[in-house]
Amino acid sequence: MGEETQIARAARKQAIRRKAQRRHSHFYERFSHWSFCNHADAEPIRWHRERWMLAGTAMLITALSGFIIPAWASAMRPDPAPAAHTMLPLALPKALPTTVHAPTVEDWHIVQVQPGQTLSDIFQSQGLSLTDLQRVMDEARDAKALHNIHPGQEFDFLLGSDGSLRGIRFDKDESNRAIVRFDGDKPTMTAQTREVERREHVVHGSIDSSLFAAGSKAGMSNAMVLKLAELFKYDIDFVQDLREGDSFTVIYDDVYRDGAYLHEGEIVAAEFVNQGDRYTAYRFKKDDGSYGWFSEDGRPIQKSFLRIPVDFTRISSQFSAARMHPILGRMRAHQGVDYAAPTGTPIHAAGDGVVKFKGWMNGYGNFVIIQHNSSISTAYGHMSKFANVKLGQHVSQGSVIGFVGMTGLATGPHLHYEFRVNNVQRDPQKVTLPKPEPLPGVQLAKFKSQVVQPQLARLKALDANVKLARASGRNDD
């Protein structure tokens, strides 16, 4: 029974195989040479196109598996903990010495001198002592700027963090600055040159009401107008002699330092026409290095005598052979000129000379007589007090000898002024004053060629332009 069953199973398998072969006869016909049976009589395997395709497909699948599976495994792995780092101390290289230093900006404190201040006042205002001032004086020695200070002058202080004096700067003159330092081993003083420039101006003015009004209209400062009046005060009485229509032409300069305005300069050349009379003044450097002003003929503008020795408000009494005395009440010669002025107004010496008399004189009160030469003397009366002059002392023209008052026989404060020739009183307003000597020959030739000729040409050119402008204005009218 068992044997029959096995025969039946084998017959069934054979029938299924024949059925499959019939159904897939085309496949078996095409791949009948494929066989995995080890028959001795079978042909060896040959690599045809189909085998190459199968082998290539298998290799591609294997390669992709090698890349994809590790990448997927890495993506699914958790992030590793960060690795711990150990800090190791490293020795830094030594810094090389630097040779370039940034400039230090020093904080200099500028102080301007105020009226009435002294140098010690200025030092104390900066918290400095008189010892500091003495140190500066000792180091600067003969610096005139420290001995004669004036309002507007500047001192620059450099102070330490503790308030100590480290340095001071001041102007020795217009073009040089002194710098004293105390921040080193010992005090030092150096000089610094500053650029100074003079800028010239040429102006013309005509008198309508007053000299100051005409000067202001022409563009001059009051200080420069005063310098103009000072130049011609020997020839023109600017209180009594000015007339409408008088004119002036001036060349002057302003001083600039380091490009900034410093102060007004000096008059270089000037012309003044007063009541038809023409007066000129030219600035000239003499052989000794000093400057002076001279007229066109080379004579000094500064005459031997001042025409008027005091700044006055009016003439209260003229020179007269007979006048009614205001106190005595009778006719009496008035042998001088009375110039009314406030009490205390300075009185100046009219010229160089020697004090011949100083004291009380009946009728004249406090009285001074100055002998100028063998023949000429001047006298000054009614002074409120004397200046610091002594009998026999030599005085220079313009020096103060006393002050206006009303001592003696006087009804109000004024100066009684006399001009005497061989002890005979002469009218100070009319007497012919001696002319000063002109420049020596060589200097006179230099003065005329280098100063008068070029400056006179400029003055004339300006006068011509002014006259042309006036004529054009009249023609337009």
Low-confidence stretches: 36-42
Taking the sheet with the most strands, its summary is:
10 strands, antiparallel
- What is the fold-level CATH name, i.e. the topology of the domain at 314-426? Glucose Permease (Domain IIA)
Helix content: 25-40%
Discrete helix count: 9
Fraction in beta strands: 25-35%
Give the overall silhouette: elongated
Instruction: Provide the gyration radius in Å.
Output: 58 Å
**What is the straight-line distance between the termini?**
168 Å
Second CATH tier, the architecture of the domain at 314-426 = Distorted Sandwich
Number of DSSP-assigned strands: 22
Mean pLDDT across every amino acid position: 82
Name of the CATH superfamily of the domain at 314-426: Glucose Permease (Domain IIA)
Structural class: alpha+beta
CATH class of the domain at 314-426: Mainly Beta
Structural summary, described in words:
With 477 residues, the chain is α+β, with helices and mostly antiparallel strands. The chain contains 9 helices and 22 strands. Strands 11, 14, 15, 16, 17, 18, 19, 20, 21 and 22 form a 10-stranded antiparallel β-sheet that branches. A hairpin with a 5-residue loop joins β2 and β3. The longest helix has 36 residues. It is elongated. The N and C termini lie far apart (168 Å). About 1% of the residues have low confidence.
